[in-house]
Structure formats: C-alpha cells, structure tokens
C-alpha cells in the first residue's frame, strides 16, 4: 500500500513555496506529483511556448472563454505582484526540489483546455452573466485591496470560498473543482500503484475533495468521463437564437396583418436595424475598436441577431484583426501583462475584446427591441397581436 501525502498550496504564496520544499525534504517521496498539465508546465519552465496561430484563435469563436482565461491570469498576476511571488512558484519549487533530490516529477492535472471548455460549456447563460460581473468587480478590487494570500491556504477559508463559488455557479464549480478533484485523485492513485511514497502538490481548494476520493476510490467516476468533450446541457444559446428569430418574424407578420399601416411596419423594421446596430457599434467602440470595426458591427448586427449560427462580434473581430494586425507572441504577452492598460494595448486582446463586446451590444439590442418597440411605435400591443394573429389564421385557413 503506497504512502500518499498531499500538500495544499496557494499559487502566489511564499509560505506555500517554503512548505513544498520542506515537505519534499522531510517526506523523501519516490515521486512528486504537481497540479500542472503539459501546457502550463512548459509555460512555467521555459521562456518561450508554442502559441495557437492567430487565425485559429479568430476562427475558434470562443471569445468569451478566452477573455475569462486572460482576466483570471491577470488577477493572479496582480496578486503575485503584490506578494512578490510569481504565480505557480510553488509548483516550480516542487519541480526544482524533486530534481535536486533526483526524484521524478509527474504532471497530474487535467489539460487546461479541457477544463476551460467544460467550465464554459456547462455554465448557463445566467451563470455566465454573473461570472462576467464578478470578474469586472475582481479587476477593480485587485487594483485597490491588499490581499493576505497566506490566508488563502487556511482550510476554513478555502472551504467557505468553495461553497460560495458553488452557490454562485454550480455548473461551473462541477467542472472547475469537482471534476478536477476526481481527475487529480485518479492520477495520484495511479502513481500510488507504481511508487511506495507519493507526494502530491495541489491547490488548497482541492485538498478535501481529493482526500475524499483517496479514502473511497470506489466512488471515483470513470476517468474517460472526465476527459471527454463536454456535451453540456441543452444548447440554450442556439435555442434562444431560434426563439428570437421566430418571435421577430411573428411580430413583423402580426404588425403587417394587423392593419396599422405600412409606415408602422417599415418603422418596426428600421428600429430593428438601428437598435441592434447602434448598441453593437457602441460596445465595439467601448472595447477600443476601430471605427471601421464599429461600422461593421452596425451593418451586420440586425442580420446576425436573426441567425443563431452567426454573431456580429465575429465580423467586427475580422475587421479589427485586419486593422490591428495581431502578431505571433501576443498570446503570451497578454498572460504576462502587469496592468489593464498594458493588456488593452496588445492588438490580439483588443480584437478578442471587440468580438465579445460587439456580441454583448447586439444581444442587449435584441432584448431592448422587444421591450420597447410598441411604446416607440406608439401602438397598442394587445390590438396588434390579437388582430394580427386573427388575420394570420384567416389567411392560413384560406390557403388550405
């Protein structure tokens, strides 16, 4: 039976670095497992890393997920600057100390791309909205508040934080915490099958979950279910897109057949173009986008709002990329940025921010249209809907 020891850490804590070194010196493990995947290991241990091509980033369309990843990295970077400890320093200490004792190192965390894909894919629309607000608040807070990082490894503090996050985003917590607890436990148990003494260095937030699985391995979910592409739940974004299209077409048909007049119908169509376009273009400019990118968002948002497979931000991002011309190496520059201003000056970040905010503006415009179109047109919605649908049914019956 292998002897397994866990060390819980905070990722930007000098105390954690010291504890990791002391644990390896005292425990003398046969192998050291670290909460890293191959990509993060290379990023920590090498000066340069292979980055995804710019075209691949733009074609992927996962702009919201990319922004979440970059903002989280920035927040961690800022906390690290406050404490004087580079993010991931405790993992580097574990790697260096293991090598100094001529012990092998195992990477025991799930691929970050899988984790982020499952995290973003599992969250509902409301969870994503709340997450966006929380990240904006964190960006402001991290600039102003002094953070006692060493308190973050206190188990009571960690447990309270995990429970709050679970209430805030139950689906996100499942992918970011619970699934990784299980994945880490699987990897540690596999190491335990090959080595007598295993030391695993993991974030403090995973300690209790991993321990539960190590105490009861039979409760572990199959490893394949933790690495498969996330199916998520129902494709709510597409369902909502189809519903918006259907609602708009029914609304226009009702107005056209209600007898309120051609001028009202034309005004309804014009307001659809203007409300979607102005808000999408406005948010593009808010992101720091070029006027041509904003003009593109304005021109296409009325159409993309009616097609769940398209988004105004994609077109605005293409134009922005043509103007800003992101270059190789900028992905890493974004992750290393020390201030928000520095991050915003990087062309690739600007392109992704333009894409995300143009989509936000278009979405707000769509909902604003349905909320305000009847007061703007100065017509009674009940009359339009009742008369319009009544005439529509008569027309259908006449055809058949």
State the helicity in percent bands: over 70%
Radius of gyration: 26 Å
The run of helices and strands is EHEHHHHEHHHHEHHHHHHHHHH
Number of helices: 19
**Biggest pleated-sheet summary:** 4 strands, parallel
Q: What is the subunit organization of this protein?
A: single chain
Q: How many discrete domains? A: 2
Q: What fraction of residues sit in β-strands?
A: 5-15%
Mean pLDDT: 81
- Shape verdict: elongated
User: Going across the major beta sheet, what is the strand order?
Assistant: 1-4-2-3
Per DSSP E runs of 2 or more residues, the count of β-strands stands at 4
Residue ranges: pLDDT <50 for 5 or more in a row?
149-159
Secondary structural class: mainly alpha
Distance between the termini: 77 Å
What keyword list fits this structure?
400 residues; mainly alpha; 4 strands
How is this structure best summarized?
Keywords: Membrane, Transmembrane, Transmembrane helix. Helices cover 70% and strands 5% of the residues. It contains 19 helices and 4 strands.
